[in-house]
Amino acid sequence: MEQNMILSARHVRTWFPVRGIAGQTVGNVKAVDDVSLSLFRGETYGLVGETGCGKSTLGRTLIRLLDPTDGQILLDGTDITKLSARQLLPLRARMQMVFQDPYSSLDGRMHVGEILMETLAIQKRGSRKDNMELVLRMLEQVGLLPEHFYRYPHELSGGQRQRVGLARALLPEPELIICDEPVSALDVSVRSQIIRLLLDLQEQRNLSYLFISHDMSVVRYMADRVGVMYLGRLVEEAATDELFRHPLHPYTRVLLSAVPTPDPRTHRERIVLEGELPSPLSPPPGCPFHTRCPRATEQCRQAFPETKKAADGHLVACHLV
Fold first, then answer.
1. Which 3-state string (H, E, C) describes 196-256?
2. pTM for the structure as a whole
3. Which domains does the chain show, CATH number per domain?
């Protein structure tokens, strides 16, 4: 499988320093804290967890929109963590991002054609005429019309703006796309259209997705494997069907208990967490989930659990398993 791996993260940390009155560092916000994962060609890896767990920070770090504090990020075997901006530029075309809010991610002073043509200009692709033809073909591929070329973002619906964001990500012909909550801001009917479009494009182009979401139902439909994050750490990872059928970590069980069932006659016991998500500025000692876990023991309060691997590749970091 190693030859099919497009992205590998090893013990990645992304910490943000907190400055005191005199400018000295008084602490660190540990947004991502020792995360390792891999992504294979043509695969969708779902990354889930509640707001504030570090999902988006990890996604931005993996394609160097944010610089990691520590760890390795290998893109097709090349360590991109030490590359300068100039060295990284040729690799930018291979890894792109679709953002959660399509409106704020598009420049409102530029029409759609200018936004997309700019992407090709940065990559120094072809002549202006060739690029315009390429942009028009791309608009068609993502379900937009030629007249949208001259529309401004505020003249488009939310779904149309997200299609523009997807077109912008596809134009450099990437192999990897980080999808950061790409459908959470959309209406339900539009959401299903964008999800179907993402799946069709993945099949056509053999794309790899890191799909970040808090919606477990969408992740179950999209992802081949799922990683569960809590307070900057990856606490469980498994094939999608295995994770939904047999969750091992107590936090994963909490997330799954909130997923609605299609059959109203089926009852699922809802697990409600007590307390607030701890601050990443001062995470609790031991297992970070122990302050909210109903099954926590003294061992959970004192030592962070090692990640254990089952025969089927199921990974979990929990003393209780």
1. HHHHHHHHHHCCEEEEECCCHHHHHHHCCEEEEEECCEEEEEEEHHHHHHCCCCHHHHHHH
2. 0.91
3. 2-40+48-86+212-317 (3.40.50.300)
